[in-house]
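Re: export button greyed out
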Amino acid sequence: MYDLSRAHRHDRKMEDALVTHIVPGFTYRPVGNTDGDAIRPIGLVLHVQQGNGNLFGWFNNPSSQVSSTLWAGRSGEREQYVPSDVRAWAQVAGNASYDSIETEGFNTEPLTDAQIETVAQAYADGVRTFGWALVVTHTPGSSGLILHSDGGAAWGSHPDCPGVLRAAACGTIIARATAIVRRMVPARGGTIGGGTGGGSQAQAQAQAQALQQAVHVAADGIWGPATDAALQAVRENRHTRAEQAAVGTSADGVWGPQSQAAYVVTVKAIQSVLGVGVDGVWGAATDRAFTMARNTYFTP
Ligand SMILES: [Zn+2]
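Workaround output, generated via the alternate export path:
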């Protein structure tokens, strides 16, 4: 055969000067577990750490042979181990086309609000830097936020990474990333239901897209019948298959803990767009804001 490593080393030298992107707000702690080869990522793979504490030591240990682009601590700690435009070693065949983020904790626990914000900030940076689509995808090769488990055997066969509890936050993450990118909705507020009357059409469209992401329908920015049906299914909370689809869990007609967890995540995402208190409970204030927004934006 031929000496791949030498050619590789040559390439790497050239790339070293080019590959430098670090996500703003993340602490860059470069690790050894990378060949330094350049990539142009098309999205971000969500992982669960199955442990606690930062991963710098493990990813800098040559015997582990693993690394991730980013790490999201429970309390909002943000670390970057490999530049965004360099291949990390997180999901085998998926390493060539996706960045990766490890999330501290276990797949029996949902992401913390701080982690959701961290992933959203990282994702928004990828949208700005690499043009990632503001969508959740489950198809390897497509741009978007994707689960490690979505890659199947080609990505190392990790069916429980990040697990259903953390996967349920993907809609919220994309909704928040959308808000960040469009600079339309603050972290805990918004204007779609605020009645300020000052919102532009683009702003309303962005907020409608954020709502669409939250209820897992195509994000075209138009609050049409399909979007409305999904939102109403969540609002009515009758534990139907339609509601399960809207909250992003498997529509099997059995409302268990996973459906309930996904429901809470979805309500929180809707509340953050509506600009009401984000507590995961669809109460009177949420319903009032929803009704105002619907009166203004629903296009039958
Ligand atoms: Zn994983």
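The longest strand covers residues 43-48. The button fix ships in the next patch.
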